[in-house]
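Researcher: Here's my situation. A collaborator sent me these components and asked whether they could plausibly form a single complex. I don't have experimental data yet, so a predicted model of the whole assembly would be a useful starting point for our discussion.
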Amino acid sequence: MSAIILLVVGLVAMALGYFLYSKFIAEKIFRLDPDFRTPAHEFEDGVDYVPTNRFVLWGHHFTSVAGAAPIVGPAIAVIWGWLPAFLWVVFGTIFFAGVHDSGAIWASVRNKAKSIGALTGDVVGTRARSLFMIVIFLVLLMVNAVFAVVISGLMMNFSTAVVPVWGAILVALVIGQLIYRRILSLPVVSVLGVIALYALIFIGPSVPLQMPAEIAGMSGNAVWILLLFGYAAVASLLPVWVLLQPRDYINGLQLFVGLLVLYGAIVFLNPNMVAPMFNSNVPAGTPSLLPLLFVTIACGAISGFHGLVSSGTTSKQLNKEPDARFVGYFGAVGEGMLALAAILVATAGFASLADWQAMYTGFGQGGVNAFVQGGAYIIHNGLGLPEVTAATLLTVMAALFAGTTMDTGLRLQRYIFQEWGTIYNLKWMTKPAPATLLAVGSCLLLAFGAGGAGGTGGMLIWPLFGTTNQLLAGLTLLVITVILMRLKRPLWYTLVPLCFLLVMTVLALLTQLRGFYEAGNYFLLILGSVILIAAILVSLECGAALKRQRQEIANQGK
Amino acid sequence: MHDDRDSGHDPLERIRAWLSQARFFAEEVYSSRYRGAIARARRDEDDLFMLLVFSEMMGVPNPAAYYTLELQPLLLERFHDWHRRMGMEHSPLDHFRCC
């Protein structure tokens, strides 16, 4: 089957989702009101609350939520064949992610732009709020550990990308200075920055840097992981304008260029789907599709992380309430498009089925490597770029996404430690440097604890990251559902996704725990149990909150 | 936003208008995500500066008082917001009350 057919079907379905389903949700369920005075106007202060043009806000929202996760997840999940991943991404985007993301913005905007964490405390209860903090911490912990493992793998496998990936940091530092000191105007800097980045990508293949397989008794992967955390710790402590801001900006541009190149190459080449529709011949040790598919692909179908962005910064800048539909729902559609591209290149970017099977030799194999190799094959044959340059381009794209997520994640984790320091009156923990060290330490523990001294097996925790991320999404959906219940509006559109997520998450955790137990991996067994307990508590909170709310409404009726 | 009343006729004008639009969007995208963080960092620096300028009046010796005295009238407008932000309901200065 031609990949273009799948591409068109996916895009049309998501477009219908946006034009029909999101319109229904926005008008009939959330009842977005153009006359409602949003917090951006009510509390306008030029700092946090600033009414922002909806296209700009969409760009901000989309680039904040899009990262390496919608690439890695789908590229792992195609091991069960392309159809299950395709269906979950398309339907997940339409019925889960879009409603979740725009709902989080709406709930926040209607409550003085409070974050979902604070709203959980207000709407559900203080116990749920503590639970929320723990789940956020676990998500960040896993994001950082997983992405360090992903980048180190990329650095080991694609040595041509080492120079451009680290050179991009230099480019960002220079851009930051040029803009902060107002030496050049932003459009000029943007053009120069993109040229510099792509020049590095073209230079990369002629200066490959290979980390030795072993340094001082440590594997090359482990050395990369340590280097990455060293970098992320420094980056997260620097003022944001020095590195984070220009890096995110360059990344945003790179995201649009990358998406265009990938989609363009697929259209020009018109490759066939090499991988099977359903893979009945999965490698030994691959867990069953149901329920694991629904946690392997989190971002790209539904992700709790988006709720944090929606209610953290987006809701404070929303100009008019109906913009929540465009920014939130269409932001989710953008993420779905990235995931769709990942599915297509990881299943159609191979010359033969044998090549594809050689990549997917076990669960957790393939992944981002399949994305880079498959994408390079398609770009090379579709647009005529040398294969090694195309591979470098995609490696840089994936590594930069994962990198920015890491330094933002580490920064957020540090804030949590600092907050705990304040709550429990531990003076030393409220300081940035010790809190960062604690954050880095916990991530390293996970990266090496899960994968052994080599740090290579860290991809084992990918589905755990998905489960925790879905728990977070579940809590956000719960908040939205309770608010809808209070307003006496239909609940099904958020309640069904909520129940589905909770059931799949708990089932997936049980499957994984059995796997860890059988493999004798007690570190992950303990971590998984912690998440299972959190999942059960979240489910109980959901039941209790909804029951309480129903009773309140019944009492009012008397 | 820019003013594009005359931009329809002259192609050069039109390009200029388009460029200024592009610049507006680029700058908004660049700053919108970190506006809060940067404004807060700047405000923290300003707050420290305020403390230095008004320290002598609150009984904290300041060797640069001779110079900061000149700045006081310039910063008075921001004084009220500052003491509120520092957690003081009313002006901390005896001889000078802004509220």
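Model: Some features of this prediction you could bring to your collaborator: The mean pLDDT of chain B is 80. Chain B touches chain A at residues 19, 22-23, 25-41, 43 (CB under 8 Å).
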